[in-house]
Amino acid sequence: MEQRILQYRKQIDEWLQKMEQRAQTLSQDGEYSTQAIQRQSDTQKTDTEKTDTEEQTMQEMVQDKLQEHLVQVGFFQHERLIHLIVTVTFALLEMLAIVLSVISDSLFTLLLPVVILIPYIRHYYILENEVQKMYGQYDRMRRLQQKAAERNNCTSENS
Question: Comparing C-alpha atoms, which of 30, 29, 65, 38 is closest to residue 152?
Fold first, then answer.
């Protein structure tokens, strides 16, 4: 699960970078196209229509990826909840082991839960942080979607 979430988040980061660069390029092209409409003939209007279709395609791609991302976040949130329950259970068992080790003077009762608990806490820590980063990715996707919608509205008003 750890590798899956790390790979997924890396894939989304790369996709977001490409889309943000594409949005920036479309934004610059859109500014040029808006000025061209005001100054030039109908031949440049076809360039604007081409930019509009690219923006609509980009908006649809972002919407699809956004839906997929929400599903993935839901999976990881569920996993996170399960790990929280297990971690709390292990912590309670560790407290019981400490009490038993004090009563029975046995190091084994203290050592066993610690050996299991430390790797589990590391796993839970990675899972928790990656889901938090995925929330940031979701916010970036929403900004991309909003920018694409704004550009789409601006270009359709100018046509």
Answer: 30
Digit-coded pLDDT (tens) for 42-51: 444 455 555 5
pTM here?
A: 0.64
119, amino acid identity: P
Q: For residue 105, what is the DSSP state?
A: -
Residue 42 gets which letter from DSSP? T
Angle at 5 between CA 85 and CA 146, to 5 degrees: 110
Question: Using CB atoms within 10 A of its CB, is residue 134 exposed (0-12), middle (13-18) or buried (19+)?
Answer: buried
Residue found by looking up tokens 């029975």 in the block? 104
Question: What whole-number distance in Å separates Cα of residue 89 and Cα of residue 79?
Answer: 15
123, burial (CB in 10 Å: exposed 0-12, middle 13-18, buried 19+): middle
98 phi/psi in degrees, rounded to 5? -65, -45
Decide: 18 and 75 in contact? Cβ < 8 Å. no
Which whole-number Å values give the CA distances from 4 to 9, 76, 109, 133, in the listed order?
Answer: 9, 10, 34, 14
Provide CB contacts within 8 A for 39, sequence distance 6+. none
